[in-house]
What we know:
This protein is of the alpha/beta class. It contains 14 helices and 7 strands.
Amino acid sequence: MNRRLYKSMCAMLGCTMLSVSAAAVPSTGPATRPAREVRAEVAATSNQIGESLKGGLKSLATEESRKEIAPAAVPLLQKFRGQLHELAMVDPEFKSQGNSQILMADTILAALGDDSGSAELALSAKGAGEDALFAAGGQLFVRWLHTSEDAAKQAAVLDDLEALAKANDMSQSIAQYASMMASIGGANEANEQRASAVTQSQRANFANKLKNMEGKPLTIAGVMVDGKPFTSADWRGKVILVDFWATWCGPCMASLPELKKTYANWHDKGLEVVGISCDKSTDALTGFLAQNPDMPWPQLFDRDNPGWHALARDYGVEGIPTMFLIDRKGILRSIEARENHETLIPQLLEEKGND
Length: 355
């Protein structure tokens, strides 16, 4: 549910999904209602917010439009934030991922002139990790909106954005907010181009990090969904297909029949598969695996921190499905195995390894 919720929030703003590893969301009082009831209210309020932000991201672009939508949107966003805090109390899995949704609400509130949103962003920006970068990016985005008529002040925002990006050159949050700035438009064309350049630079960093991994040894290690440890070092001499995926991912589901066929065709000849699940719900993953017994390969999943897997973040994987291929000697041969595994797997199986 929380993945769809966050997706709907982003749809209001015309942005794409962020992959934020969130800290625990603070509680606001004793939990008295079932999670199902709170989730229903959250979804209803999210829809109402979408209706109040009539123009999506563009509705925040000018002071005039912000003043027009604020009377209806601000109370809804404040209500939404409270509901998210309550949901974090009654749904442990949502609690581990809830800050990203709350910070997005705080960003919109701050953009609409609400002091509580600004205060929450400032507090979160003093923290650490991707949450703090998300909040800092939100602050810069609000400044960008509020200086839309002043090219010089907006250029100062970009100075701070570029400095933050330089210090955190693998942050998806910074890339996202830079993209939003460019999308909504700047005070002049030069500012728009600078914002776009930050987005392109950050995304190039992800791509370069991945590309630089090719041709080098790679061991995949983590905890499986059943809590047992896993390391691909135990598969010495095997060809290994690494699948970054999630049950909520439409393209992942669409490619799954082919992956099952690939495993069935080549497993006896030396192919192993390991899944790295970016699911945000343990139940969603385990339920799906129970319904698909023809997926016998290990699934890495962090029950304590569901969502975008730490290995995906560490390797610079921006989107799923993504597949790696590791050869018999443990060398990463392809970071684009989703496109070339059908031809590359038989080639790698023919190569001599260390078995």
